[in-house]
């Protein structure tokens, strides 16, 4: 009898079997043994590559990862009204770069399903039986047809924000539905999660040719003047504008610049508003809508030197010792 096969193929099959065991209720001792092995590099499985180790570590975290940890928040959801025409739908798909969009009736709190770009293309063209010329013809009249009349709106899953990521991943696999709407306790739309969002929790960011290269959220425009996206974390702000940026007790309550500004004025700031409640800095709202702040200009007030400048000044004033 031939000996059992060895090599990469066997290691790969073993890895995926372990991943499968971790995605379903696993024996506690196996989970603990794997965690210990990953923490101790010397005793770890030498057949595992660095990426495999990272993946297994992420799988171990799935039991504590909830859907609201990976979902797209409500304010960032791009969707289409069922009353919109097919032509408008194509424009939204093109501008967003997404292949799927949720469809709603009247408001985002009433999601009726989702539509795939392939279904939209099916209604825009028809095959041509003539041997010569183009194999398809464009159906321009269809561009004026409302989305709700296309009969191609697909189902989506509706899940609570507290649902474990591993459970949702298994539900998507069982139902073949790759989009889930996250609903709050009142039945309103809280966020959106796709299969890609769940896989990124396992393997890291997945970028395709339509993803924009993410630019820095905080940039310096001039000495003591900075431009920041409201999504920037307070730690990112401090790294760029200086360690003297001090939100005080609010740092325990909020994580982002947008959250900080909301907490300072106890409402959503409006465009062109200037907030001066943080000592040494002022915040001018460059872009905002009724739901959130988008862009902010941060100016260090006159007389407030950045930490590195104060250090240099002290060095200049220090006695030479001669």
Provide keyphrases for this structure:
34% helix; alpha+beta; 5-stranded antiparallel sheet; 4-stranded mixed sheet; 14 strands; disordered N terminus
Description of the molecule:
The chain is of the alpha+beta class. It is 34% helix and 20% strand. It is built from eleven helices and 14 strands. It has helices at residues 8-23, 28-39, 50-61, 67-70, 86-96, 117-124, 165-175, 195-203, 234-241, 257-265, 307-317, and strands at residues 72-73, 80-81, 100-104, 111-116, 125-127, 136-138, 157-159, 179-183, 189-194, 218-222, 225-229, 274-275, 281-288, 293-300. The strands form four sheets. It has a five-stranded antiparallel β-sheet. A four-stranded mixed β-sheet has the order 1-9-8-7. Helix 7 (165-175) packs across helix 8. The longest helix is centred in the first third of the chain and has 16 residues, at 8-23. It is globular. The model is unreliable at 1-10 and 306-318 (pLDDT under 50).
Tell the overall outline.
globular
Mean pLDDT: 78
Q: Over the alpha carbons, how many angstroms does the gyration radius reach?
A: 26 Å
Number of strands: 14
Strand content: 15-25%
Low-confidence stretches: 1-10, 306-318
The largest sheet is: 5 strands, antiparallel
Figure out the total of helices: 11
The secondary-structure element order is: HHHHEEHEEHEEEHEEHEEHHEEEH
User: Termini, distance in Å?
Assistant: 88 Å
Sheet with most strands: strand arrangement: 10-11-14-13-12
Helix-residue proportion: 25-40%
Derived from helix and strand composition plus strand pairing, the structural class reads alpha+beta
């Amino acid at each position: 009898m031939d000996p059992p096969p060895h090599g990469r193929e066997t290691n790969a099959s073993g890895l995926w079997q372990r991943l499968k065991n971790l995605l379903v209720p696993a024996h506690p001792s196996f989970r603990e043994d794997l965690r210990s092995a990953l923490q101790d590099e010397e005793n770890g499985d030498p057949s595992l590559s660095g990426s495999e180790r990272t993946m297994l570590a992420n799988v171990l975290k799935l039991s504590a990862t909830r859907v609201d940890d990976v979902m797209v928040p409500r304010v960032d959801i791009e969707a289409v009204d069922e009353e919109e025409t097919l032509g408008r739908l194509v424009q939204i798909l093109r501008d967003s770069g997404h292949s799927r969009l949720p469809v709603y009736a009247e408001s985002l709190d009433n999601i009726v399903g989702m539509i795939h770009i392939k279904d939209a293309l099916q209604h825009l063209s028809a095959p041509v039986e003539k041997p010569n010329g183009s194999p398809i013809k464009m159906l321009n009249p269809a561009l004026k047809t409302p989305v709700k009349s296309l009969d191609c709106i697909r189902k989506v899953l509706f899940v609570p924000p507290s649902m474990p990521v591993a459970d949702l991943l298994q539900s998507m696999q069982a139902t073949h539905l790759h989009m889930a709407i996250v609903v709050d306790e009142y039945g309103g739309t809280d966020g959106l999660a796709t299969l890609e969002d769940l896989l990124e929790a396992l393997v890291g960011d997945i970028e395709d040719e339509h993803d924009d290269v993410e630019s820095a959220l905080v940039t310096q425009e001039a000495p003591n003047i900075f431009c920041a996206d409201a999504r920037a974390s307070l730690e990112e702000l401090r790294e760029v504008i200086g360690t003297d940026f001090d939100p005080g007790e609010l740092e325990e309550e909020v994580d982002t610049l947008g959250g900080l500004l909301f907490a300072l004025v106890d409402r959503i700031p409006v465009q062109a508003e200037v907030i001066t409640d943080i000592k040494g800095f002022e915040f001018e709202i460059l872009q905002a809508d009724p739901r959130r702040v988008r862009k902010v200009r941060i100016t260090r007030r006159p007389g407030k030197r950045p930490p590195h400048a104060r250090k240099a000044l002290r060095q200049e004033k220090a006695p030479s010792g001669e």
